[in-house]
Every structure is written in structure tokens, then in C-alpha cells.
Amino acid sequence: MLPLVEAKLFSCTQSVELAVKIAESFGQPLGKVSLSKYSDGEFRPSYNDSIRGKRVFIIGSTNPGSDNLMEMLLMLDAAKRASARHITAIMPYFGWARQDRKDKPRVPIGAKLVAKLLETSGATRIMSLDFHADQIQGFFEKPVDHLFASSLFLPYLESLNLSDLTIASPDMGGSKRAYAYSKYLNSDVVVCYKHRKKANSVDHMDLVGSVEGKNVVLVDDMIDTAGTLAKATKLMMDKGAKSVRAVATHPVLSGKAYENINNAPIAELIVTDSIPLKKGMTDKIKVLSCGNLFAEVMKKVHNNESISSKFLM
């Protein structure tokens, strides 16, 4: 076994609340980082202690705005230039991931660009939760630990003891995830078919499968404006469902998301704290922390141990 080096944990400003939970579970406090700002908005992070020869974990989701991604890149670059031996970018939410392919001419592949920026900045390992698309792992030349929120959601769903359970995917692209949940929970599965004319706007939605008399759980990797969620829950209730719940790993919740959730006939929306939530916007949201999950995997990575036991799906 390789000799261990000292581990140091640091947080970007957008993820301090989650980073504190991770550090407590990991068993050591967060390291200190100073952030100086210029009057035009430019900023510069600096580590207050030596990290030479250390294993550095930098915790920060890269959800828009772009300052969150820029802060992670600057933290990585600073760690590289301070001679850290290992530099792991811990990104509970990997932003810009919806741009994972060219779906029309003359557009970028933003997720690939971000991957290259992270590696160029100094990341020697990447750890994230529920990529928007599995192929994003292939955009990196460095090791990637792709964790699954199913290890949090499945025990919670089992604890609800829902009868006549059916798992639903909000679109064809999420059907693989829905089938994996249904297999674990030994339940039926249905799929929504939706047509978009533009991003964040669903023009038409149909349901493949029956939900009559069922308690339905929609499964997705993120929830943005909650427009799809609102349409899907209404469609399923109109088709005779007993109740509709949803699990979504990343609560982006932009635009009229909270209004859409409050107005939708949904019993509960279950999310993680990969992205900080606005407080008190709705009582329909249940938050499960991913802090312990990241801390446990970080410990195993630090101790050069297998992490395969953490992959339920």
C-alpha cells in the first residue's frame, strides 16, 4: 500500500454549508482560504496554510453563474502552484453538463470544455454526484469517481412503505435510471414522452404505461424550472394516480420553479443538498444531505481503498 500523505479539505464559497458537513463526517475541520476581490468583481483565492506534498480536496459545485466554476478553477490552480501532491475536485453538482453533445450545428460541447479546464487547472481526480449524462466520465483523462444519489434516495423511498409503487421517468433519456430504481424496488415503471421546442419549455407530453391506482415516484437527475415536473404530475393525477412524488438529485430551481412546485399536485419533492436551496420557499421539498456519502468516499480514496461498495446503481 502506498504511504499516506496528509489530507486537507477546502471549500469554495458557494458550497460552504455542505463542505462543513463533509468535513465533520470526514473527521477534520476545513482549511482556511482567503478571498480577495477587486472593485470590478475579479477575485483571487489563497490558501492560508502550506499544502506542499498534501492530498487536497476542494469542495465546490459549479452551478451557474460562472463565478462558481471560475472559483473552482482558481482554487485548483493555486493548489497546483503550491505543490500539492494530489488535488481532487469535489463537485457535488457538475455544472454545464447539459451541453454534453452537439445537438445542432455550430454549438459548443460545454461539458467537455469544463472537463478540460478542470484538468488544465490542476485536478488530478474528479468526484461528482449523478452526472447529467454518463458519457461525461469519458471527457476526462484523470480518474473520475461518479457517485449515485440512489444510495440516499432508495432507503428513504423504502421507509415510506408505499403500496402499488410505480417508478416514472420524466423523459426517454432518464428511462435507464428509472428502470434501475424499479428493479431495486421491485416495482412497475412508466415513461413520459415530451417534446420541446426550446430549452426549459415542454410543448407536449404523453405517458407510456399505466399509473391508475398507483403511487408514483418520478426519478430525475436535476430539477430546473420544474415545468416538466408540474406537467408530469398533473398528467399522472389526471390518469388516475393515487399520489405523485419526485426525486431529483440537483435542485437547480431557477425561474418560476418554486411557484411551479407549489402549484403542482405533487406530494413531495426529494432532493440532495448538492446545490444550496433558498430557505422557506415551499414545504413540499425534502432535503437529504450527501455530505456523509462524499466524506465516506473521500476517506476511501485517501486510504487507497476500494469504493465499489458505494455504487448501488
Automatic annotation (TrEMBL):
Entry-linked InterPro entries: Pribosyltran_N, PRTase-like, PRTase_dom, Rib-P_diPkinase
EC number: 2.7.6.1
GO terms classed as biological process: 5-phosphoribose 1-diphosphate biosynthetic process; purine nucleotide biosynthetic process
Gene3D superfamilies, sorted: 3.40.50.2020
Annotated CDD domains: PRTases_typeI (cd06223)
PANTHER family in UniProt: RIBOSE-PHOSPHATE DIPHOSPHOKINASE FAMILY MEMBER, RIBOSE-PHOSPHATE PYROPHOSPHOKINASE 1, CHLOROPLASTIC
Highest taxon listed in the record's lineage: Eukaryota
Residues in Ribose-phosphate pyrophosphokinase N-terminal domain copies: 8-122
Family: Belongs to the ribose-phosphate pyrophosphokinase family.
MF GO annotations: ATP binding; kinase activity; magnesium ion binding; ribose phosphate diphosphokinase activity
Keyword line: ATP-binding, Cytoplasm, Kinase, Magnesium, Metal-binding, Nucleotide biosynthesis, Nucleotide-binding, Transferase
NCBIfam families reported for this sequence: PRK01259.1, ribP_PPkin
Keyword Cytoplasm part of the UniProt annotation: yes
Catalytic activity: D-ribose 5-phosphate + ATP = 5-phospho-alpha-D-ribose 1-diphosphate + AMP + H(+)
Protein name (Swiss-Prot/TrEMBL): ribose-phosphate diphosphokinase
Class of this enzyme: transferase
Gene Ontology cellular-component terms listed: cytoplasm; ribose phosphate diphosphokinase complex
